[in-house]
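[Automated response] Your request has been received and processed.

Submitted sequence:
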Amino acid sequence: MKAVLKLNILMCTLLLAACMQSKAIMSSGDTPEWVRGEPDMYPNFKYLSATGSASKAEQAKGRALSNLAKIFEVQIREVSTTSQDTQTHKEDGVETVKSSARIASTVNLKTDKMVQGARIAEQWQSSADRTYHALAVLDRAQAGNNIRDEMNRLDEETQYALTQQKTRSDGLLKIADLHKANALQQDRKTLQKTLKIIDVKGKGAPARWNLADLDEQLQRALRALPMSTRVKVDDVGGLGNILQGAASSAGFNVRNTGYQLAASVEAQAPVYRDNWYWLRATLKLELIAQDGVTVIGYQSWPLKVSAGEKTQLPARMRKAVDKILKQELLNSVLKFAT
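Generated structure:
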C-alpha cells in the first residue's frame, strides 16, 4: 500500500507539473495524426514525444508521461512492491531462501529530474469508444540539459569520493570511496548512452574517468586491505575453506591480521516430509574491526535444502552457503563500510 501511495504521489507531482505548463484543450473531432504517428507540430528532430490512452483523462496523461520517461532507460512499474521481499530458488536439490528489503517506485527520482519540462501538449477523446488519448512532449535541448546537469552532479560526487579516498588512513573507508566512485560513473555511463540518443549530433558528453582504471584502483585497494577469516559456528562442516575461497574471489588478500570476516552456519535438525529430507540453516556474516571486538556490520541469510537421502544434506547445504558467500560477500563488506 505504501508503494502504491508513493507511486500515486510521484505520478501526481509529475502530472501537476506537466499540466501547469500545458494549455492543451481536450478535442473530440477527427483522429489527430499524433495518435497514429509522429506529431507534425512536434517533429522528432526537436522534441521527444510519447502517447498514452486510458478510459480516464488523468490516467491517459499519466501513461503518456510514463511512456516518455521510459526513453530515459528506467523501468516504470505500474505495480510495485515494498518491505520484505522473500525469493526462493531451487537448483540441484538446493533451495535458497533470500530475504531482502526492496523499495520499488514507478518513477525514479533521477528520471523525475530528467523529464522536468515535459508537458501534455495535446488531448483527444475518441467518439467511438470514449477512450482518452494524451500526447506528452519534451524539448530535446531541455532534455539534454537535464541529463547534463545530472551527469555533472555525478562527476562532482565522483571527484569528491576520489579526493576523499586519498586522505583516508582507514583502508576500509578508502574501499568504500572507490566503490562509490565506480558506482557513480556506472550511472553516468547509462546517462551518456541516453544523451547520445537524445543529442541530434549523437555525441553526448565523454567521461572524465575511465571505468577500467577506476575498477583497477578498487581491486588494488581490496588486495591491500588486511583481512582474516574466522568461523564461529559450523554445523555442516567445511565453512572455513568456503569462507576463505569467497573472500579471495571477492578480491581480498586473506592473511592472519587486520579486519576479520567471521561466519557462522547454524542448522536445525533435519526434517523428513513428503518423501524428502529437509534441512534449514542460517548463514551469518560479520565484519569485525581490527581491534578484534567491534562489529562493524552484520548480515544473515536463511537457507533451506532438500535431498532424497539424509546423508546428502550437509553437502547440499555447503553448496548453498558457498553460492551465497561468493555472490554476496563483497557487496556486504562494502555495505558495512558505508
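Summary generated for your ticket: DSSP finds nine helices and eleven strands in the chain. The longest helix spans residues 140-167.
If you did not submit this request, please reply to this message.
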